[in-house]
């Protein structure tokens, strides 16, 4: 009973955290390992458990969902699916230890980019139309989404921070819109990863199904709550989350 309550509490809190800033896997993975699930299977099971939470949190931000300049929502969805598939396939061929050494540096860079995003973006010219995007800028935006989606399919930790940093650099000035798109992208690329994990027999389904329900409730509730939080407070919380996640990776590594 204690292990069941632990898994449900971790999944609910992880769903809410993913809706706001990402990093929910830092709660589900230790809880699953503590309950006796082998680490590799725990990683796959935690990803499966958080999948409906991404969908619920994206629905919670449905009023704010909007792509950054230069991208359409359809293009973002397609790139997310392709990138997630590539990352999941790459995970099957790459040792975990190799990527684990790179993760904390990626998290630190993404957190810094997100924190400095408003200053790094060039000021919009009053005489420039809002929809003016050069072909080169559009190509860079597509490559960025594809690369981060591949990262998410390969290793889900810190995905939310990377996506928020990317959307900020691409010119999405509305934080809630970026949050909604982050959750949609996470749901799509995780769907591909889930299919691959399930085909490989890496999912502990009894734990995953119970955690799915808790993650869904946490994801939707976290998304609705985040829309009521002032943007500066939310930005500060996301930066703090990124720093904590990077510190955990350095400590583990």
From TrEMBL:
Species in which this protein is naturally found: Extensimonas vulgaris
Secretion signal, residue range per the UniProt entry: 1-21
Family in the record: Belongs to the 4-toluene sulfonate uptake permease (TSUP) (TC 2.A.102) family.
Transmembrane feature ranges: 71-93, 105-124, 144-171, 183-202, 233-251
Coiled coil: none
Principal place of residence: membrane
GO CC annotation terms, alphabetical: plasma membrane
This protein's UniProt keywords: Cell membrane, Membrane, Signal, Transmembrane, Transmembrane helix, Transport
The protein's name: Probable membrane transporter protein
Location within or outside the cell: Cell membrane
Membrane topology of this protein: Multi-pass membrane protein
